[in-house]
Amino acid sequence: MDTHEITDRFLRHFESKGHTRVPSAPLILDDPNLLFVNAGMVQFKPYFLGEAPPPYPRATSVQKCVRTPDIDEVGKTTRHNTFFQMAGNFSFGDYFKEGAIEYAWELITKPQSEGGYGLDPDRIWATVYNDDSEAAGLWRKLTGLPGERIQSRDGKDNYWDMGVPGPGGPCSEIYYDRGPAYGREGGPVADEDRYIEIWNLVFMQDVRGDLSPKLGHKPIGELPKKNIDTGMGVERVATILQGVENVYETDLVRPVIGRAEEFSGRRYGSNHADDVRFRVIADHARTGVLLIGDGVTPGNDGRGYVLRRLLRRIIRSTRLLGVQEPVLQEFAKVVRDTMGPTYPELVSGFDRINEVVRIEEEAFLSTLTSGSRIFDMAAEETKRGGGDVLAGDKAFQLHDTYGFPIDLTLEMAAEQGLTVDEEGFRTLMNEQRTRAKADAAARKTGHGDLSEYRKVLEQHGETEFLGYTDLQ
Ligand code: ATP
Ligand code: MG
Ligand code: MG
Ligand code: MG
């Protein structure tokens, strides 16, 4: 079943249960606390928070999502994309736990010939929050799921809140057992590679005064109107229904791997290190194109920096597959062709997307060529001296003179079995910033030479490193 059919069946199923179909919001919303939209519920937040009356009691959507904190998992686990589609159904004070469980179960287990996904009920597991015996009871009563396939989890996995006073509630996650070839027995608490999480049901029932059960706090009350927020991972369901090994091999991601195979002359599936690179390329190409399609351009901080880092990782990974020529425009075309039918902005905006990746790639390739030589020498020297830590001043020189972002140096070092003296790097960065400030101050009081100050600004004005994980 192709991805389009999976989302189509989802939306039609929930429309048949009285839900209004709502289009995906863009990846960027006007919310300073959120780098990218990372869940289906984001566009409905005002209704959950009671800031605006919901125009419908029930809604369903397939939302574009970007989760940059998952970037290090990409290609290594079988199930994490940086861009993925989350299908969801939402109740604003309408149905609650019972409806959410019933509707989800019906869709996943109904035979394919009748519009469902036809998953084998004997392979389904569910988790509930600690003492949410109500949910556990409903699973048994409504679906016949035996008690031993309903597992309890604590707040880290199975309690949802917004990290601020407001609504919160227990979750129930739905897992599919891929079988003994994929890992250990014992349900999702034992092995999340074998038991793959496909759907999360959030039962919004509590009022949180402050932070959350994770810190041992109890809710301060019950919501007057209880809500449902669910998210089903479309790529994960596609992995199962298409009988492939991981989310990168599904119909809307795999074609980029094919293009990378053509470029490199290497075959996906021949060795692990290359396979991870192929998957990173396919994943990041999709995310990059979708982000540019929603208006992001590469830059040195915030969203632009995330995009830049994704594009650079594609280029680096392709080089590690032995490819020297520019690749981004070719990958962008493949993404346009696979994702364009669902997101027409990728087709109408393609000239711009194409231009953005062309310029970014040109700039990065020249940086790479000069910096890589310096890096190799520094790495060689470190190893020759019997060390395994690249000196902070080397990382600084690479950054300062060759425009190497620190994360690139970290990655390249890791590939050679080295670490980097990040502390030393940061000290030098801070010293440089202090110098630039002193120069600026001198300039203000009439001392110092204007042209020198300009030079400092031009060189360093925008080079501040923003830790990737600090961003979201
Ligand atoms: P995981 O534990 O696997 O990281 P999660 O619990 O963080 O997933 P949720 O926040 O519950 O995920 O999101 C709802 C659903 O979206 C998940 O059940 C899963 O099917 C899907 N999903 C979450 N993160 C990703 C991702 N990085 N790539 C693909 N699908 C994802
Ligand atoms: Mg996660
Ligand atoms: Mg989870
Ligand atoms: Mg989850």
TrEMBL record:
It catalyses: tRNA(Ala) + L-alanine + ATP = L-alanyl-tRNA(Ala) + AMP + diphosphate. It comes from the Bacteria. Its cofactor is Zn(2+). It is an enzyme of class 6 (ligase). Signal peptide: none annotated. It is found in: Cytoplasm. Its EC number is 6.1.1.7. Transmembrane segments: none annotated. Keywords: Aminoacyl-tRNA synthetase, ATP-binding, Cytoplasm, Ligase, Metal-binding, Nucleotide-binding, Protein biosynthesis, RNA-binding, tRNA-binding, Zinc. The keyword ATP-binding applies. Binds 1 zinc ion per subunit. The keyword Zinc applies. Residues 1-472 form the Alanyl-transfer RNA synthetases family profile domain. One of its GO terms (molecular function) is alanine-tRNA ligase activity. Coiled coil: none annotated. Consists of three domains; the N-terminal catalytic domain, the editing domain and the C-terminal C-Ala domain. The editing domain removes incorrectly charged amino acids, while the C-Ala domain, along with tRNA(Ala), serves as a bridge to cooperatively bring together the editing and aminoacylation centers thus stimulating deacylation of misacylated tRNAs. Belongs to the class-II aminoacyl-tRNA synthetase family. Catalyzes the attachment of alanine to tRNA(Ala) in a two-step reaction: alanine is first activated by ATP to form Ala-AMP and then transferred to the acceptor end of tRNA(Ala). Also edits incorrectly charged Ser-tRNA(Ala) and Gly-tRNA(Ala) via its editing domain. This is Alanine--tRNA ligase. The chain holds residues 1 to 472 of 886 of the full protein.
